Input
Amino acid sequence: MSEQVRKAVTGENSLENLADISFKKHSTKDIDSVLDQIDAVLEKNAEEFVKGFIQKGGQ
Amino acid sequence: MGLENEYGISSQKSTDPVTLSNRIVLAYARYVYPNKNIRWDYDLETPLHDERGFDLSRSEVHESLLTDEDQNIPNLVLPNGARFYVDHAHPEYSSPEVLSPLEIVKWDLAGEQIMKKACELDALINPEDKIRIFKNNVDNKGASYGTHENYIAKRSTDFNKLISGLTPHFISRQIYCGAGRIGIGQNSEVSGFQISQRADYIEAQVGLETTLRRPIINTRDEPHADPKTYRRLHVINGDANMSDFATLLKVGVTSIIIKMIEEDFLNAADIQIINPVEVIKNISHDIKLEQVYETTNLRKISAVDIQEWYLEKSIYFLEKRSSDEETDHVIELWQQTLNMLKNDKDSLKNKVDWIAKYELVNKYMDKNNIDFDNPLIKSLDFKYSEITSSDGIGQILKKNNLLSSFFSVAEVDDAVLNPPISTRAWLRGRVLSKYSESISAASWDSLIFDLDKDKPLVRISTANPLKGTKELTHDLIENSNTASELVDSIRERPETY
Output
């Protein structure tokens, strides 16, 4: 990536190098650690929500 | 290149999606441009022009393809150079033109924030009918809406080589950029889980249409640039991704493959799959990635084999050229991803959307002892992609480092306000920030100034996507005191735009 593009993409502060986007930076956390959070946001009336999500076709 | 997203939309009172889409775009319009109505300039658009060299007549096509008729619907050009408007029955955000895959990710995320803000603004006007937005492609009841990638390619590239060179890639890349879907078939007739949102809606190999008989390769030839030099590849087969990694790999790998075809390096005769329109669905339905598919030269290869073939060619191609750091990185991630898809799929659960979604769904099925037909499980599919409230599951995963997220909130906010520096989007975005009150209309390749109500409008054509960059126009814009001064100084320097 050219220096110009890098600056455009990263701005000033973070993502200092592309290694941030690598397999080395593995999260050790598991999805189990957020299941309570997800439980809290699940639809109370899932059936109505699923039925009511009706879209028109697009491109 | 650029990325467009048509978002799913619903509200508390189940108001129709066209009304809702209009509401949020208008709410955002009043917020960004409180004193001015800036029109989209349709003069140069030709959506019925086919890459194969003929035009469809307006009377022959379905009205949904007539995208250049001003239907008096809100259509915004934003200070970050993007377009935000109502397309059919969906709010759509089209990112500004950028040069690199990481920029795509950043300005696509800006689109999510813009949708979110637009809904918050609408909620102030319509508090009793709050709007929700979903970054997905299906309602699981028959309707599909798109996430379209756009790549610019040299006009001289043989279109038949693009078809043969890209079809095997487009049917197989879903193994790392599929968003996952609960339900199989266009109307979810069969219960189960599949890799891609979009695969079941692909019905042709090549074609101009985008709303019916959707093709793997779309032939819309509307380069938004000098048509003698460039063609645009409008890719409609992809999914909307929550994972930044998935977006990066999707766009990064595809642009490397297009480059190989442009330079006439790729001969894909060896990996032409028989009946690709069926196979794109078969690959999507094979979550174990075990199936093999027959090639026209009677070999049997898997989706991973197809991707490994492209990877090998790409490495060889780039060895012979001066590559750049970002491209090298895409290659490395691609290679590691394919290895993991073969040996250890689970470890991609924080990078690949369909694997993340599948894990989540399995957790809930085990926990509650329910199956794919249960409404709770079906609702997870939609909730994964919800972006309007902070309780979208994809967003929860990202906040907790459980799904790939490359940019901070501050960086994405910066991309909401500012255009990318390395294309004409810079000029468009900065002019709209500084002189919106003197702009009457704008589009990808034009800016129309209304400088004096007694004089005709002034149209600046921005046909070259690689001009109008920060380097070329920053000083002109900053040093001007009025829009008239800017127009004069730009016109004196045709090399800048």
The domain at 2-413 of chain B is CATH 3.30.590 (Creatine Kinase; Chain A, domain 2). Chain B has a mean pLDDT of 93.
